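Fig. S4 source data, part A: sequence.
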Amino acid sequence: MKKGTLIVFEGTDGSGKSTQFKLLCDRLQTGGTPFRRLIFPQYQEPSSALLKMYLNGEFGSHPSDVNPYAASTFYAVDRYAAWKKDWGDDYRAGTLILSDRYTTSNAVHQGGKVSPADQPAFFDWLFDFEYHKLGLPEPDLVFYLDMPTQEAVRLLRSREAETNTRGDIHEVDQDYLTLCRQTALRAAEHYGWKRISCVDAQGRVRSIADIHQEIWAVLGQSISTLQ
């Protein structure tokens, strides 16, 4: 069966992931490359009800108040609903799909709730559950935007001040964000995600344009070879 190409953008909160995702989408659109754009979670859909309750703290004010298997299921159901209702036919028809977050987010955010020794078993369960049990497609390429936690927290707090908002239970917990980054680095190495460092060799945050150019160098002109 012909299938599409699925490219995923992943990163901890405050990494600038959504900004880079939008820049790539805009560049592909300007260049006339046909693709579908996905953003998870789909907060506007009924399928996100449980994960919104979780993020809003209705099951506990700390991420660890909900075990990683239960929380992962909340997010997986949202993706499954989108696959069945929205983008499954396009993918099967060979369309290029770009997704801001995916199953990989469960690996990053929920994997940090288990010990490093137990993480491989959790990853195995997670990917078997979503890719095999639920039948969601595996990504062809995952960009992992790696931002040091201290810089990510600074950017998150700045965003909250600018928008007069408060982050969800993930975004306001610095210890949790630290665990997520450690987990993401392990997952990226183990599963071959393309790591994009958001800081330079001196530890300074790179410009948005500089990071985008690295992403384009990986993908850009050779995107047709992934299809």
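Fig. S4 source data, part B ends here. The chain has a mean pLDDT of 89.
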